[in-house]
Each structure stands twice: as structure tokens, then as C-alpha cells.
Design brief:
mainly alpha; 6 helices; 2 strands; about 70% helix
């Protein structure tokens, strides 16, 4: 039970630090880090590069799909936001469904993405401010959150 409580506390702390860092990025630099809660979640997965890369890929693919659909459908406002989150959710669900991919005889890669709505939230901000700005702010703020977590919690960070 202590492990579950410790993990819950680390996730809560990570999201809290992520909210603060996101607010600072938004106020001082005028760019969003893919949503207010996203840097806190991404920071917990910085030690898993495959999961991080798949999450960024799914977020861009989500943006691309919705942007392509909007060329022949009327997609704006809430409809666009819900569609981004829904497409990101479905793509993440599909990748999770693939599961583990064997590489050679002894290695395998566990395919996963961060969260269920994180790719959709990042895709929304790619749509609003561009991919380079969103990814740059997201990676930078996530690294800051991870560093603060390491300073506060220590090596017990997931």
C-alpha cells in the first residue's frame, strides 16, 4: 500500500509542478507546453524514450488526421477539440493494443503512449501554435519538471 501511495504522491506532485511550469511558460514566453497538465505527465516518462517518441508521433498524427479532415468537413471550436482528443485516444488505444514487439531473440519493445488524452491535448496546441513551438516548450518544461522532481523527491522518481 505504501508503494501505491508514494506513486500517487509523485504523480500529484509532478502534475502540480507541471502546472506551475506551464503557467510560467505561458506568461513569460507566450507559448503553451501542449496543455497545462501535459508537462507533468511527460516528465514521468522521460526515462522511457520509446513511449515519449510514440506519444509525440501520435500527437502529430492526430493533428494531421484532423487537419486533413477539416479540408472537406466543417470542424471548429468544441467539435475540433473533441475530435482531436478522440482521435488521439483511438490512436493511443491502437498502439497499446499492439503490445510488445520482439526485436531479435532477446529484446522486445513495449509499445505505449503517455496517458489517454495527452496526445490529443498536444495535437490541439500543435494546431494552435505550431509543432516546433509546442514540442520545444513541451520538452523543455518536462525536463524542468523532472529536474524539480529529482530535487524534491530524489532517486525514487518513477
Amino acid at each position: 500500500m505504501d508503494d501505491v501511495l508514494m506513486i500517487t504522491n509523485i504523480v500529484t506532485l509532478s502534475i502540480t509542478i507541471g502546472l506551475i511550469v506551464s503557467l510560467i511558460f505561458s506568461e513569460f514566453f507566450g507559448i503553451a507546453a501542449g496543455g497545462m497538465v501535459v508537462p507533468g505527465y511527460i516528465a514521468l516518462f522521460l526515462n522511457k524514450p520509446v513511449v515519449l517518441a510514440l506519444t509525440l508521433f501520435v500527437s502529430f498524427l492526430t493533428y494531421f488526421i484532423v487537419h486533413s479532415l477539416s479540408s472537406f468537413m466543417i470542424i471548429y471550436g468544441r467539435r475540433r477539440t473533441v475530435l482531436m482528443i478522440l482521435v488521439g485516444f483511438i490512436l493511443g488505444w491502437f498502439i497499446r493494443g499492439i503490445g510488445t514487439v520482439p526485436i531479435g531473440t532477446t529484446l522486445s519493445i513495449d509499445l505505449n503512449v503517455v496517458g489517454y488524452i495527452i496526445p490529443g491535448l498536444v495535437a490541439i496546441w500543435i494546431d494552435r501554435q505550431g509543432a516546433i513551438e509546442t514540442y520545444s516548450a513541451l520538452i523543455t518544461s518536462s525536463v524542468i519538471v523532472r529536474l524539480v522532481l529529482l530535487l524534491v523527491v530524489g532517486a525514487e522518481v518513477l
